[in-house]
Amino acid sequence: MTIKPLADKVVVKVEEAEQTTASGIVLSTSAQEKPAFATVVAVGPGGVVDGEKVEMTVKVGDKVVTSKYSGTEIKLDGEEYTIVSQSDILAIVE
Amino acid sequence: MTIKPLADKVVVKVEEAEQTTASGIVLSTSAQEKPAFATVVAVGPGGVVDGEKVEMTVKVGDKVVTSKYSGTEIKLDGEEYTIVSQSDILAIVE
Amino acid sequence: MTIKPLADKVVVKVEEAEQTTASGIVLSTSAQEKPAFATVVAVGPGGVVDGEKVEMTVKVGDKVVTSKYSGTEIKLDGEEYTIVSQSDILAIVE
Amino acid sequence: MTIKPLADKVVVKVEEAEQTTASGIVLSTSAQEKPAFATVVAVGPGGVVDGEKVEMTVKVGDKVVTSKYSGTEIKLDGEEYTIVSQSDILAIVE
Amino acid sequence: MTIKPLADKVVVKVEEAEQTTASGIVLSTSAQEKPAFATVVAVGPGGVVDGEKVEMTVKVGDKVVTSKYSGTEIKLDGEEYTIVSQSDILAIVE
Amino acid sequence: MTIKPLADKVVVKVEEAEQTTASGIVLSTSAQEKPAFATVVAVGPGGVVDGEKVEMTVKVGDKVVTSKYSGTEIKLDGEEYTIVSQSDILAIVE
Amino acid sequence: MTIKPLADKVVVKVEEAEQTTASGIVLSTSAQEKPAFATVVAVGPGGVVDGEKVEMTVKVGDKVVTSKYSGTEIKLDGEEYTIVSQSDILAIVE
């Protein structure tokens, strides 16, 4: 499978609401809360978006927090993904 | 038939909600979900749109994911098409 | 009769919902659908609109698709016309 | 009486809904339709508006079509006028 | 009393709805109509507003027409004034 | 106590609705009217805000009129203050 | 734990509604008031945001006032944090 996001788009896979990371951190988002912990699975090339040059600063494999209400959900080969703009990614969790 | 989109417009044909691609991927969008898998059938020339130079990065035949709520549906010669701005195309699926 | 659109404005005549073009294409827009097939009857000079230089790319006689909800309807000499901005024209049909 | 519009403002006098022009055209706007046939009675000097240089292209005496919902109505010396921005004028009818 | 408007702000005193000017013009705004005839009582220094250079073109004593819904009403020393942006002033009446 | 507003923010203390200034002016804002007479208690450093250079023109001690609906109310050490952007300050009263 | 905010994002920990600072100031925000006293726990690198260069002026450990309705709440390792844009931080309290 290859999904290639355009421009400043990023494809992420939303994680289960509660999980323990390698470093032992418990990540949790209640089901009714919109912000999501997610893993980056594909990153667009960046470039000019709305007339502004966008450099991509996230990379595949990053654990990220995305903002509320953002993104378009798609289902590919039975798996659910969310496509967001990089500006909807608030932080990287390590 | 010739339909020539203007500026940054792209004409796409929305695919059936579930289908299997050449590489065996099952693509599905439930009927009540707005994002669409679509095939590009015509691409505008790009150029200056709202004062910003837009380069076209999709091409005829690309399988794409378009964003929610976007596009204008038209019927041409009995077939339904959707005209979207390129910025409403989130990703290419291969 | 002379109607001279200003700036990036274009005067179009909306076609009947269903018609057959010279090349035999059946064009149809259901009555309840807003996008319209229309014929360009007058084109503004372009120039600076909202601080951006606009070049006119449609010409009198073009068969066009206009976007939903756009335009101002006027009645001139018993005939109905619609005045739209060129950016509300999505594609040319030939 | 002197009314001097500022910047890109234009003072117009809305015409009766139906009238016949010198060239015999019947102009009509039904009472419930907002776009108006109007005659320009005063034109502002143009200049920088919202940071963009605006050149005035209409002149006193022009018969114009103004867009829906635009303008501020005033009463001067018993006569009703409407003050619009030039960008709310869609076309000149001759 | 000194009230010094900042930036592109202008302090005006709204006139009675109906009055006769020196040149005999009857000015009237019905009570339920929002646009107002007003007299300029103080003018800000202009300068950069929202990143755009604004030059003040009205002066103290000007009779002006202000746009609908604009301005902040204040009471100073028993008198009511309205503070508007210069761009809310549509025309000068002489 | 030190409160240091950032960027173009200004901390003001809203005055009682009616008071007499040194020069004998009675200032009043009815309780249900939103514009406020206030005294500036701290001024941000200015700088680039939304990509525009902002110079601070009010200073500590200025009596100002702020616009309707603006500002964030905070309580510090039992006293209530409002933090506004300088662009929400309409005029200085002396 | 490491949380790395992107661009102009700042991670803050909202303080209890009432507390006494080292210098003896009682800080309070009633439960129903949205503005928050918070402590900065992580600061993004700044850079170009929406085409504008943003310099970060807050630092880890700063006590800040954030604006109403802003921010995305997350829970990390059992603790609640809020991610805001730096422009949502109104002032630093010392």
Automatic annotation (TrEMBL), chains A, B, C, D, E, F, G:
| Highest taxon listed in the record's lineage | Bacteria
Q: Which InterPro entries match?
A: Chaperonin_GroES (IPR020818), Chaperonin_GroES_sf (IPR037124), Chaprnonin_Cpn10_CS (IPR018369), GroES-like_sf (IPR011032)
Source organism phylogeny: Bacteria, Bacillati, Bacillota, Clostridia, Eubacteriales
Q: Which organism is it from?
A: Ruminococcus bovis
| NCBIfam families per UniProt | PRK00364.2-2
Q: Into which family does the record put it?
A: Belongs to the GroES chaperonin family.
Q: Which GO terms describe its molecular function?
A: ATP binding; metal ion binding; protein folding chaperone; protein-folding chaperone binding; unfolded protein binding
Q: What does this protein do?
A: Together with the chaperonin GroEL, plays an essential role in assisting protein folding. The GroEL-GroES system forms a nano-cage that allows encapsulation of the non-native substrate proteins and provides a physical environment optimized to promote and accelerate protein folding. GroES binds to the apical surface of the GroEL ring, thereby capping the opening of the GroEL channel.
Q: Which PROSITE patterns match?
A: CHAPERONINS_CPN10
Q: Which UniProt keywords apply?
A: Chaperone, Cytoplasm
Describe its partners and assembly state. Answer: Heptamer of 7 subunits arranged in a ring. Interacts with the chaperonin GroEL.
Q: What is this protein called?
A: Co-chaperonin GroES
Where in or outside the cell it occurs: the entry states:
Cytoplasm
One short Pfam family name for this protein? Answer: Cpn10
Provide GO CC annotations from the record: cytoplasm
